[in-house]
Amino acid sequence: MAHQAGGQRPAPRAVPVRSEAQAYLRDYTTFLEAVPFPSLVVDHTWDVVLTNSAFTSLFRGVGPHPTAMPGDNFLRFVLFHPDAGTVLGEHESRWCLPMLAHFAATVERSGHDHGLQAILQDIAEDPIMEAAYRQGLPHWLRAVGETAVVSDGSVRPLLHPDPRWGATECRIIEETPATLQGLGYTRLTLVLREARRPAPVRRRTGRARRPAGHLSVVSAPEG
After folding, report:
1. Are 95 and 78 in contact (CB under 8 A)?
2. How far apart are the C-alpha atoms of 19 and 21, rounded to whole Å?
3. Which helix (H) or strand (E) holds 140?
4. What is the per-residue pLDDT across 163-216, written as a single tens digit (0 to 9) for each?
5. Under CATH, which number does the domain 21-192 receive?
6. Per-residue pLDDT tens for 90-140?
7. For the chain, which residues make up each domain, given as ranges?
8. Distance CA 87, CA 168 (A)
9. Is 40:51 a contact under the CB 8 Å cutoff?
């Protein structure tokens, strides 16, 4: 797995590219490690190719999952990992639905892709996500507009395990150099903001895990 909680910086995943591209990815891994904010490189199916230590730190508290670890496939993590809501604030409306919208747009363009079809099949087999994808998503898109598909520049809540950040926000920045783009990859960085200071609320017991019964929809995202 690319993600190992508390582990060393992950090596680039083996990809069927020229040796020059492999060397570029090795050097890009070193570059990515110098970025102070959580940053990752993904392919068109959100399979994770590279991450940095800040990304590992952000998700260090999530439990194991056979198919939806954040350092393996970030879309699967958002959709299927029961601990996603412990890190991704307002998980349903600010993370899950926007990424479902992005996924749906990608399926429209490249629906024949095997990796996309595999995720689509997993959604179909999950009653909560199937309802969100087929029913909740169209309603949400009518409410917020098609710009919801664009992740670059969006501001989303985070619950960072490091108390120096705590409940905060991040702006998603897509900044992909031409060489990465030519390999079919996209780089995303979660630029952390100063911790929010919300009014005191009654503390819940237990972890903010994904509810078992339904996915509540809809509230409009900010940013």
Report:
1. yes
2. 5
3. helix 137-144
4. 999 999 999 999 999 999 999 999 999 999 976 555 444 444 445 555 444 455
5. 3.30.450.180
6. 999 999 999 999 999 999 988 789 999 999 999 999 999 999 999 999 999
7. 21-192
8. 10
9. yes
